[in-house]
Q: What sequence folds into this?
């Protein structure tokens, strides 16, 4: 069968062209170059007492996810194929995994955080101002180009009004001696990109102001 004539088809699909493209914009990114920082928001947020623990979590967060974004949509059809119309943004929950130390301060922190959302003594849910945080997730380059002794941040996501919806069960077994890990699922209202998107001083509901993001 003869080839179908197609105009403007991609050309030069060779290894040298791929190498040239992959080395642009700092070369290909690696999934291991990341860091996560949790910042309590609001001057009176009870979670500020865990400042030192949140700082430790920067080093103990072993697995993270860059957040996604989607749209809620409705389907309609006037004539021809059915089409979709977006009407609202949707931000999916993310999962973070932390390495645990022997005295279990990480588990204690997140158990206390869950209890702050819904105290087991009263079973009354607290206001979001009392337990919401900001979670910053950084993507780093592979090389240090500034001279700080570590790779440089290239991209940043700031998750607003974040709080844990699930502290996952932890598997323990005599079959191995691996490090104990803790998985936590977080929800949030939205995310912005550091240095690229506007950063309003107040949260979506206008009830509190986020503290500075350069604490640690």
A:
């Amino acid at each position: 069968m003869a080839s179908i004539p197609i105009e403007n088809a991609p050309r030069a699909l060779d290894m040298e062209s791929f190498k040239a493209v992959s080395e642009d914009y700092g070369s290909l990114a690696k999934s291991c170059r990341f860091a996560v920082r949790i910042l309590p928001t609001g001057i009176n947020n009870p979670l500020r007492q865990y400042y030192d623990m949140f700082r430790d979590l920067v080093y103990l967060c072993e697995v993270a996810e860059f957040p996604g974004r989607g749209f809620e949509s409705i389907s309609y059809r006037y004539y021809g194929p059915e089409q979709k119309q977006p009407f609202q943004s949707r931000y999916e929950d993310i999962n973070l995994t932390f390495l645990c130390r022997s005295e279990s301060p990480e588990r204690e922190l997140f158990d206390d955080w869950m209890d702050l959302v819904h105290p087991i003594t009263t079973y009354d849910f607290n206001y979001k101002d009392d337990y919401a945080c900001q979670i910053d997730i950084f993507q780093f380059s592979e090389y240090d180009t500034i001279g700080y002794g570590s790779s440089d941040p290239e991209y940043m996501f700031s998750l607003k009004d974040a709080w844990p919806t699930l502290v996952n069960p932890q598997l323990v077994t005599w079959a191995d001696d691996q490090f104990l890990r803790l998985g936590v699922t977080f929800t949030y209202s939205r995310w912005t990109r550091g240095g690229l998107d506007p950063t309003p001083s107040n949260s979506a509901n206008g009830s509190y102001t986020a503290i500075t993001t350069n604490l640690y």
